[in-house]
Amino acid sequence: MQEFAGREAEFKAMLNARGLQLAALYSDDNGYDPGSEAETIERNLEIARFLQALGADILVYDPGRPRPDPALPEHFDVVAHTVNEIARASHDMGVTTAIHPHWQALIQERDDVTRIFDMVDTKYAKLTVDPSHMVKVGYDRRSAKPTARSSPTCTSRTSPRN
């Protein structure tokens, strides 16, 4: 994205010439460190503006690798605040912010996903998953049963946006 920041029309023309459409961009930060919020929010809103300019509508957000040891409540507080700010602002641009649990990241375990989604505004913050990461951290695909509060809408290219 940085290579084409300010040159979105040129990038879009390159994609169009190849019959391609940008769907999403992935952002990963160490956005769980206290004091990192403003920088993380601005960097991700730049990505959201880029997506908007290209007609794409999903910002996939991984809030932190490597996983801090230990993962502390304040790490989740920082991520929740940051995600809420990014998700609300990107929503106004027509871009959905989707948290991506990732292997060896702050949010990887089922309890981490439940915890963060109990802290964010699920009207704006959504979930996108990679099943291989879920299996790697021990999710049992046969017994995965979402709970009412911890089952935000997943992003999907085959279902309407919520």
What does this structure look like?
This protein has one domain (23-136): Divalent-metal-dependent TIM barrel enzymes (TIM Barrel), CATH 3.20.20. The radius of gyration is 16 Å and the shape is globular. A four-stranded parallel β-sheet has the order 1-2-3-4, covered by helices on one side. It has helices at residues 8-17, 37-53, 73-92, 110-117, 131-136, and strands at 24-28, 58-62, 96-99, 125-127. By secondary structure, the chain is α/β, with parallel strands linked by helices.
Q: Which secondary structure elements does this structure contain, and how are they paired or packed?
A:
Blueprint: H1 8-17, E1 24-28, H2 37-53, E2 58-62, H3 73-92, E3 96-99, H4 110-117, E4 125-127, H5 131-136
Parallel strand pairs: 1-2, 2-3, 3-4
Shape: globular
Enumerate the spans where pLDDT stays under 50 for 5 or more consecutive residues: 146-152, 156-162
Q: Largest sheet, described in full?
A: 4 strands, parallel
Number of strands: 4
Fraction in helix: 25-40%
**Could you say what the CATH topology is called?**
TIM Barrel
Instruction: Look at the structure and name the CATH superfamily.
Output: Divalent-metal-dependent TIM barrel enzymes
| SSE string, helices as H and strands as E | HEHEHEHEH
Give the terminus-to-terminus CA distance.
26 Å
Mean pLDDT: 86
- Sheet with most strands: strand arrangement: 1-2-3-4
CATH class: Alpha Beta
Gyration radius, rounded: 16 Å
